């Protein structure tokens, strides 16, 4: 029998330890546990909050800003969100221990409808990418609360309290590598100096092609943009989307992304590439995670001790998991569990018998004291409406 909002039951998502290892392979067996503290960055009765990876995270020491999408909470197949979907932010000035929800004016949404690139202009004064309160927010099309096929950006000088924009990627859409493409990137950028920023994007030919990922840059403070290089190949079998990239040295970069096979028997993955020449060329590095169903994007951080940490939502079992690498992403250590108490008000399982573990899409930063702070969307017995949760631990 199909459940409606008048007939709702509480379903506990089975923990991995009760499932046969042969179902998911040895690499899915968690090998380590953590001493983790949990917080909440955004919650509101009757409202759904989701997808930090679609919206971005920014950090200035112990000041952390995370973006997410908010809508009405409605139990249904797929995502439990309905109505208008707004892009909001939460701010912490104590390393993620406490949070304040904020909704700045002139940020992605107008008063009457979803943001559709309305009012985009060309930037006329260069941005100082090294300003102490600088934040850049990329927007494009193809995900919740954003719909603009040529993309653009907002920027802030006061840690996200106020924003300037929306601005065009001036000069980009005419580039031979991107002409006719639809842009669908998330916010993934690396400041090089006051005038120079590298931005990782995803793009697809027309509106139906498979997305691939590449790098663009501005060397004049955002006045114009140029294409640098493709990272992933053009391939009709998979979409390459939802990245997070870290810089190891002046010329070394490691890029992680969500590889989704839609029309194939192949399993989706989280994979990495590496560049050793300043993003001009890229080579496949490693696979972090194989995801049997319900794939999830990665959050990647270069730790103070030289290791990498990559985390992701495992929707197969309703957990937030991760791995460390001690060799700059060439290999990954045992999988560890960050959180495993997912519970939600759910509609019926889908046609394949899967419960909708609607969670994950993390972003992550490392505090000055060394602790990691992960932000993701989650639901528990106490708070069954999806909210933005925070986990803090020592790596």
From TrEMBL:
CDD domains: Sialidase_non-viral. Residues 90-372 form the Sialidase domain. SUPFAM superfamilies: Sialidases (SSF50939). InterPro entries: Sialidase, Sialidase_sf. This is BNR/Asp-box repeat protein.
């Amino acid at each position: 029998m199909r459940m409606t909002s008048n007939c709702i039951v509480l379903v506990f998502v089975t923990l991995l330890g009760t499932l046969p290892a042969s179902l998911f392979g040895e690499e899915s067996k968690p090998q380590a546990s953590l001493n983790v503290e949990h917080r909440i960055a955004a919650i509101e009765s009757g409202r759904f909050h989701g997808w930090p990876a679609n919206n971005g995270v920014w950090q200035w020491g112990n000041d952390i800003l995370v973006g997410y999408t908010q809508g009405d909470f409605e139990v249904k197949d797929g995502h439990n969100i309905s109505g208008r979907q707004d892009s909001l932010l939460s701010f912490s000035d104590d390393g993620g221990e406490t949070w304040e929800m904020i909704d700045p004016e002139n940020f992605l949404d107008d008063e009457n409808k979803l943001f559709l690139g309305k009012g985009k202009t060309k930037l006329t004064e260069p941005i100082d990418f090294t300003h102490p309160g600088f934040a850049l927010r990329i927007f494009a099309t193809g995900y919740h609360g954003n719909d603009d096929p040529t993309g653009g950006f907002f920027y802030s000088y006061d840690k996200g309290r106020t924003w300037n924009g929306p601005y065009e990627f001036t000069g980009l859409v005419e580039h031979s590598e991107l002409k006719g493409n639809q842009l669908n990137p998330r916010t993934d950028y690396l400041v090089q100096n006051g005038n120079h920023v590298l931005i990782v994007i995803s793009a697809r030919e027309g509106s139906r092609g498979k997305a691939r990922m590449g790098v663009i840059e501005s060397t004049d403070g955002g006045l114009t943009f140029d294409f640098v290089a493709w990272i992933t190949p053009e391939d009709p079998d998979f979409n390459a989307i939802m990245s997070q990239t870290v810089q190891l040295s002046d010329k070394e970069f490691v890029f992680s992304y969500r590889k989704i096979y839609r029309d194939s028997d192949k399993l989706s993955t989280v994979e990495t590439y590496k560049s050793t020449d300043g993003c001009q060329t890229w080579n496949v590095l490693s696979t972090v995670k194989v995801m049997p169903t319900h794939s999830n994007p990665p959050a990647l951080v270069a730790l103070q001790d030289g290791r990498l940490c990559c985390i992701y939502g495992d929707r197969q079992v309703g957990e937030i998991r991760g791995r460390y690498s001690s060799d700059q992403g060439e290999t990954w250590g045992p999988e560890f569990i960050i959180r495993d108490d997912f519970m939600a008000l759910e509609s019926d399982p889908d046609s394949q018998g899967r419960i909708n573990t609607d969670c994950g899409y993390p972003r992550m930063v490392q505090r000055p004291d060394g602790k990691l702070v992960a932000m993701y969307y989650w639901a528990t017995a106490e708070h069954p409406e999806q909210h933005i949760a925070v986990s803090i631990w020592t790596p």
